[in-house]
Amino acid sequence: MRQRTLGSSGLSVSAIGLGCMGMSVCYGPRDEDAAVETIRHALDTGVTLLDTADAYGDGHNEELVGRAVKGRRHEAVIATKFGIRSLSGGPAGGPLIDSTPAYARQACDASLSRLGVDHIDLYYLHRRNPDVPVEDTMGALAELVQAGKVRHIGLSEVSADTLRRAHAVHPVTALQSEYSLWERELEDEILPAARELGIGIVPYAPVGRGFLTGALTSLDQLADDDYRRNDPRFQGDHLARNLALVETVRATAARIGCTPVQLALAWLLSQGEDIVPIPGTKRIAYLTENTQAAGVSLPEPERRALQEAISRHAVSGARYAEPAMRLLNT
């Protein structure tokens, strides 16, 4: 697996990471033993960046990652997050967000304990409460760096202005936000700001929550508790319109000799050396498919045609329900 450096921080990670969230929540049944095996296989194949959060299963996912890396800590770059106290305890039934300095310190200690490690390689503010100045939050995170509990600081789904304000307090190593062929809003202001500041980009949902695989055509294919049953882009007319876009991905993938998943990831990788996607999976077979995308060569004419065919305005529906949308770009 090739390595990439996140921004100007010097943090070297695998060109493709592993998103671990689905091993605990949101995407149907879970199998802890299979998840641990998948994480360890990722390490075996050179995937170093493992992404988790305290909100994924109320700490379950961090415990799972900790179990998987036990005895192999030196092989992993562990990224976790804080800031979501509850996924449903906030306004209008949305997430309850706490980005206060006191909670940053409390959450960090709890994550270290669940992970079973003495430091977190990359610690993100998962979502930001706009009532708490980001300068205050960053001050607390800087103290955690000074204490040796955290090596690098990241932010998730913040605005360009917040990114600049935060970086002025302490260097921000990475920005984790949704970015893919079917979610391109980042390109307008946030991506240029990150590059101006030397901040790496870690796209989550890089395959459109599985949509760009081309395999999902009906909600009937999903488990009853699958998050996507409530995702606006998977509903009714939105789903029908978006399915037409996937045909472009399938046709292009067939022409260059890869799978639609690999094409979607290769497109992201081609957007810049500062981009490290973290596709999520629970299975070794899909992990292998994902990581092989790092070796896919995407010709420039195909790259341009693909992003013109699936433009930002071509995708139908909001990317979250309203309560969660209010937490973006804060």
From TrEMBL:
SUPFAM superfamilies: NAD(P)-linked oxidoreductase. It comes from the Bacteria. Gene3D superfamilies: NADP-dependent oxidoreductase domain. InterPro entries: Aldo-Keto_reductase, NAD(P)_OxRdtase_dom_sf, NADP_OxRdtase_dom. Residues 16-309 form the NADP-dependent oxidoreductase domain. Keywords: Oxidoreductase. It holds the Pfam family Aldo_ket_red. This is Oxidoreductase. It comes from Streptomyces hiroshimensis.
